[in-house]
Write a structure and sequence with these properties.
The chain is of the alpha+beta class. It has 8 helices and 8 strands; from the N terminus they run βββααβββαβαβαααα. It has an 8-stranded mixed beta sheet.
């Protein structure tokens, strides 16, 4: 297993992406994730407090109540371009593996201060050497236009709302409907 850290979380034209960068070399694994999981990761990375626990906060609270410790999370496999994850929790001194999606595992790892690992097979198959995106350089032209905001400084909800407005302006109504649904889902998760 290769220990990794969250290098970036951003919205691409295909959806939200979390970049896991190896601590030992220059390889990174990009994983596409859902809007709700992106929000859960972003909230924790940015230190935003929410009035009521979100799903990953609840899971962490349940583990704490049951005196289970999240030891680590793993991106343990990739099959047909789908990543598989695993939580390794300690229960009564014994390690237990729990199958999960990598995005949920990452969101939980942030709350439990647990390390993240990627299997060597996954890193060999999906790992890439990526150019680091520096927000100040990547969005220079956007800063020159006061009507635009660099996506890296926006919350996932703000990004989706901007994309929705762009889709409506360009009369891409199918994209707008999909974005509207994602925004509704994201807002519902935030309110609950």
């Amino acid at each position: 297993m290769i220990q990794v850290k969250i290098e970036q979380l951003f919205l691409s034209n295909l959806g939200f992406v979390v970049i896991l960068k190896s601590d030992g070399d220059d390889r990174s694994v990009p994983i596409f994730i859902g809007a709700a999981e992106a929000q859960a990761i972003a909230i924790q990375m940015q230190g935003v407090s929410v009035p009521r626990p979100l799903t990953h906060d609840l899971l962490k609270n349940v583990f704490d109540y049951l005196e289970c410790r999240v030891k680590r999370v793993e991106v343990c496999d990739i099959r047909d371009n789908t990543y598989y994850g695993r939580l390794v929790v300690e229960v009564d001194g014994e390690d237990k593996d729990i199958d999960c999606r990598p995005s949920d595992a990452i969101a939980l790892s942030l709350r439990a201060a647990a390390p993240i690992f990627v299997d060597e097979k996954v890193m060999s198959e999906a790992g890439r050497i990526l150019d680091t995106i520096v927000p100040d350089e990547a969005h220079q032209s956007e800063r020159d236009n006061p009507d635009e905001f660099p996506e890296t400084s926006m919350t996932p909800l703000e990004i989706l709302e901007k994309k929705l407005n762009d889709a409506i302006a360009a009369e891409r109504y199918e994209d707008a409907a999909r974005l509207r649904d994602e925004i509704g889902h994201l807002k519902k998760n935030t309110e609950n």
